Amino acid sequence: MTVKAVVAGIAGRMGKIIGQLIFQHPEIDLVGAFEAPDNPAVGKDVGEVLGLPLTGILVQDSLEKVIEKADVIIDFTFHKASLQHARINASFGKAMVIGTTGFTKEELTEIHELARNHFALVQDYNMSMGVNLLTKLVELTARVLSEGYDIEIIEAHHRMKKDAPSGTALKLANAIAGVLNRSEEHFRFCREGIIGERPPLEIGIQTIRGGDIVGEHTVLFAGFGERLELTHRASSRETFARGAIRAALWVVGKEKGVYSMLDVLGLKDL
């Protein structure tokens, strides 16, 4: 039995790739798609939007018009939109996969509370299998190099990305902080002027924006006489889309609550 998916933001960069890959996957079917009401894709056949043969599925202008068809909603849109979609879904209890970035703490807290009470949710800032493995490697490295090493995270993305630093950079920083008993108070997002000596507990997070960079993250452990760099580079958004589909297949039928890609990939307890 195939999983029935609805894709939010089907005409967006990620929405298009997710939609295209769903049509190639034998275990998941696209049963609905929607966009913001003022998007020119509304009313068009999904196939036309995705560059595929006509499907008979029209792009709708709201989640409410397609949600009842779904087993799972896949959402890579905008933080305010994703929050509204989660609020709507609270009345329907459909599984959700949210890969949107840029949430405020308050928004993410509300989404997680909605999920704990009403539906199963995989929420992660990066659905790439490689990045999630990197997260575990970074945790291991931080345990071993817990003293005498300065930690910096450098992330690079395309010039159109709206939020900074990336959600993945924050995910890596929080993973390190959790291992080393540090907090967000130790994060350093920029340096300028006479800044003085680097505090020993600081975790630097530096941002680069330019061109069409899909996504690059390097975690640097700099000691005296040596440094270790762990890097992940994404060359195509397909890696995030494939991870999202894997998450969608995994989350359907799970108990309500909040899950991450570490749960999906079986890495959480390693």
Describe the structure.
The protein starts with a strand and ends in a 6-residue tail after the last helix. With 270 residues, it is an alpha/beta fold. It has helices spanning 13-24, 46-50, 79-89, 105-118, 129-144, 167-180, 238-251, 261-264, and strands at 3-8, 28-34, 72-75, 95-98, 120-123, 150-157, 187-188, 203-209, 215-222, 227-234, 257-259. The radius of gyration is 20 Å and the shape is elongated. Helix 1 packs across helix 7 and helix 3 packs parallel to helix 4. The model has no long low-confidence stretch (mean pLDDT 96). The strands form two sheets. A six-stranded parallel sheet has the order 2-1-3-4-5-11, sandwiched between helices. It has a five-stranded mixed sheet with strand order 7-8-6-9-10, covered by helices on one side. Helix content is 33%, strand content 23%. It folds into two domains: 3-123 and 237-264, Rossmann fold (3-Layer(aba) Sandwich); 129-234, Dihydrodipicolinate Reductase, domain 2. Strand 4, helix 4 and strand 5 form a beta-alpha-beta unit.
Global outline = elongated
- Count of separate structural domains: 2
What is the CATH architecture assignment of the largest domain? 3-Layer(aba) Sandwich
Number of strands: 11
Spatially, the strands of the biggest sheet line up as 2-1-3-4-5-11
CATH class wording of the largest domain: Alpha Beta
CATH topology of the largest domain: Rossmann fold
Terminus-to-terminus distance: 31 Å
Helical segment count: 8
Taking Cα atoms only, what radius of gyration do you get, to the nearest Å? 20 Å
- Write the CATH homologous superfamily of the largest domain: NAD(P)-binding Rossmann-like Domain
- Strand percentage, roughly? 15-25%
As a percent range, the share of helical residues equals 25-40%
| Pattern of helices and strands | EHEHEHEHEHEHEEEEHEH
